[in-house]
Amino acid sequence: VLENQDLQDSIKPQKVEFHSLNFNTTLHWQPGWAREARDALYFVQYKVYGQSTWQNKDECWGISSHVCDLTHETSDIQEPYYSRVRAALAGVYSSWSLSCRFTPWRETMIGPPMVTVVHSNKSITVKLQAPRSPYRRKRGSKISMTNYYDLLYQVFIINNLLDEQHRVLVYEGKDKVIKIEDLRPGVSYCIVAKMYVPMLDRSSAYSSRQCTVL
């Protein structure tokens, strides 16, 4: 029995955490500390905070992976969720490892916008598109993250003559098309943008650079 108890403890999953980007939500964990733990199989359950019964996640029942997609299970984005994982090896089951509480609306990270740049001789027109969630409208198109939050675009310009690292904020607001004027012909400029969530005081990462020479 003692050996079983040791095995149970040594294969118990560690660091059970939700990761979420634009409501694409996965549960991640690390294997137990025993060397044999790499051969363990994992079982995932989830529930809404306050519910008494745990639900099995069928696609993550007896898996060897250390990640489980719970996007569909956490689609009520204002609700707080928990998840838990246990491991099994050689007929021995570990106890459950519990995640922290996870509320998608508060905790999902918002991705950067898509940026398209069109130039003329003294100006740059920037077209912006907010990231989309995994959830779909009845007609099938994915719902924009702007449906869930009051989002602002932040647009920065980098003048490559001056300093590659120096980003100047040139626009903050909701317009999807903006024009940056009075720029110098023959100079290389790059544009990057972020999404900003005023209510949570949080920003996305920067978009990839879109560069152009006027």
Automatic annotation (TrEMBL):
The Fibronectin type-III domain sits at 6-96
Recorded GO cellular component terms are: extracellular region; plasma membrane
Has keyword Repeat? yes
Q: Which residues form the Interferon/interleukin receptor domain?
A: 108-212
Q: Which InterPro entries match?
A: FN3_dom, FN3_sf, Ig-like_fold, Interferon/interleukin_rcp_dom, Type-II_Cytokine-TF_Rcpt
**KW rRNA processing (keyword) present:** no
Q: Where is the signal peptide?
A: none
Under the heading SUPFAM superfamilies, the entry gives: Fibronectin type III (SSF49265)
> What role does it play?
Receptor for IL22. Binds to IL22, prevents interaction with the functional IL-22R complex and blocks the activity of IL22 (in vitro). May play an important role as an IL22 antagonist in the regulation of inflammatory responses.
Q: Which family does it belong to?
A: Belongs to the type II cytokine receptor family.
Instruction: Name it.
Output: Interleukin-22 receptor subunit alpha-2
* Organism name: Motacilla alba (White wagtail)
- Provide the gene name from the record: Il22ra2
